[in-house]
């Protein structure tokens, strides 16, 4: 039981005795010694009171605060710090995963010779290899799990005539996604900037896109690097970037090698919509398609080339459909060494009788953990 606090009269008696003695004289020192003892008792009262309150609080479980960092202004992609060392990948559907439990999960997209999505395959139709050694498939699934998606939108001057169609394609992509998906949008010309942070609201993204304009040069590599870094704040386990661009890089601070290394160490799939000119005037624009294709293929995504800007919305919807219909193959690697080395992964599909040869899109490998 908690004691009642002392009355104001008692508190007024806590004046140090030496001051009382100066006021009254030495004839009443015994009285003042009693007052000193009383002051000590009052101090002990407050100590007991505090301890009693602590005992009461210790009986109550206090929920710790959320560990989610407060979101602030994001740094520009060109200024984001480069990765240090090799990352240990987490277990989740939709990407390469590595943890203490020795399981690797691989997302796989299958298409036919007409580039149409193939669904309905079974576990027995697949084979998977790590460093050329066949692995036993332990788990197999095809599910529409929510995805965190970053849209990397080219706003350089060459996009001026294509801007409206590109905006429509992005909105179509979002509208046909899983309702639980979340999105952020990075626009880039001379440098990348965050246009809209993680949200599931189509209206919020549409309002932001309505205010952007095209101009200046193209920092494509910086924008991709920024997008991969931004994915560290994602709330879903599956992660993907959608790059919408019409040319090569001519402004970035990050090099092609640095961005390739960052992408290789991440668990982010990259899909690209390339609106390339038939006659690229600069070397950067001529090498741009190959750069986007290499980055996309290495992550298990794809590059879609746009021949007619009126088809962009259909292409965006197709990419959205692919993300919602991926196979996820899980296996326990035979090599359990925690050496941080790159492990090559190859997925093969053996079509059931009556089907033509099929194309496989899967990430090319992962880094083993260091511990």
What does this structure look like?
This protein has helices at 8-12, 17-24, 29-58, 163-175, 202-209, 220-230, 256-265, 283-299, 312-323; strands at residues 104-111, 126-130, 133-135, 137-142, 147-154, 182-188, 192-199, 238-245, 269-274, 303-305, 327-331, 342-349, 359-362, 365-367. The longest helix is centred in the N-terminal third of the chain and has 30 residues, at 29-58. Strand 5, helix 4 and strand 6 (182-188) form a beta-alpha-beta unit. It has a six-stranded mixed beta sheet, sandwiched between helices. The chain has a four-stranded antiparallel beta sheet with strand order 4-11-1-13. Strands 3-2-12-14 form a four-stranded antiparallel beta sheet, with no helix packed on it. It has 371 residues and is α/β, with parallel strands linked by helices. The protein has three domains: 8-58; 93-143 and 327-367; 147-322, Rossmann fold.
Question: Could you give a quick summary of the protein structure above?
Answer:
With 371 residues, the protein is α/β, with parallel strands linked by helices. Helix content is 31%, strand content 22%.
* Structure classification: alpha/beta
Order of helices and strands: HHHEEEEEHEEHHEHEHEHEEEE
| Rg from alpha-carbon coordinates | 32 Å
Q: What's the pLDDT, averaged over the residues?
A: 79
Residues in helix, %:
25-40%
Work out the oligomeric state of the chains in this entry.
single chain
The name of the CATH architecture of the largest domain is 3-Layer(aba) Sandwich
CATH topology of the largest domain: Rossmann fold
Q: How many DSSP E strands?
A: 14
Sheet bearing the most strands, described? Answer: 6 strands, mixed
- Show unreliable segments: 1-34, 46-100
């Amino acid at each position: 039981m908690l004691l009642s606090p002392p009355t104001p009269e008692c508190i007024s008696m806590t004046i140090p005795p030496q001051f009382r003695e100066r006021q009254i004289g030495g004839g009443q020192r015994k009285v003042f010694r009693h007052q000193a003892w009383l002051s000590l008792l009052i101090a002990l009262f407050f100590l007991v009171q505090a301890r009693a309150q602590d005992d009461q609080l210790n009986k109550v479980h206090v929920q710790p605060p959320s560990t989610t960092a407060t979101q602030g202004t994001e740094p520009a992609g060109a200024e984001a710090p480069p990765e240090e060392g090799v990352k240990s990948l987490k277990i989740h559907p939709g990407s390469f995963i590595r943890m203490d439990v020795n399981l690797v999960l691989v997302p796989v997209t299958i298409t036919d010779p007409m580039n149409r999505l193939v669904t309905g395959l079974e576990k027995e139709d697949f084979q998977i290899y790590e460093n050329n050694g066949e692995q036993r498939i332990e788990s197999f699934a095809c599910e529409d799990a929510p995805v965190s998606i970053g849209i990397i939108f080219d706003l350089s001057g060459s996009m001026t005539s294509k801007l409206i169609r590109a905006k429509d394609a992005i909105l179509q992509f979002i509208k046909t996604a899983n309702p639980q998906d979340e999105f952020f949008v990075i626009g880039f010309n001379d440098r990348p900037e965050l246009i809209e942070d993680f949200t599931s609201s189509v209206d919020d993204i549409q309002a932001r896109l309505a205010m952007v304009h095209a101009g200046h040069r193209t920092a494509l590599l910086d924008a991709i690097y920024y997008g991969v870094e931004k994915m560290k704040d994602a709330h879903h386990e599956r992660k993907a970037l959608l790059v919408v661009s019409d040319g090569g890089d001519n402004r970035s601070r990050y090099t092609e090698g640095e961005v390739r290394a960052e992408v290789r160490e991440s668990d982010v799939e990259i899909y690209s919509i390339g609106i390339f000119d038939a006659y690229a005037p600069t070397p950067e624009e001529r090498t741009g398609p190959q750069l986007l294709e290499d980055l996309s293929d290495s992550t298990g995504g794809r590059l879609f080339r746009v021949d007619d800007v009126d088809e962009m919305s259909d292409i965006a919807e197709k990419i959205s459909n692919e993300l919602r219909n991926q196979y996820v193959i899980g296996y326990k690697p035979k090599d359990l060494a925690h050496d941080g080395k790159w492990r090559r992964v190859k997925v093969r599909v053996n079509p059931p009788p009556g089907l033509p040869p099929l194309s496989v899109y899967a990430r090319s490998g992962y880094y083993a953990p260091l511990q």
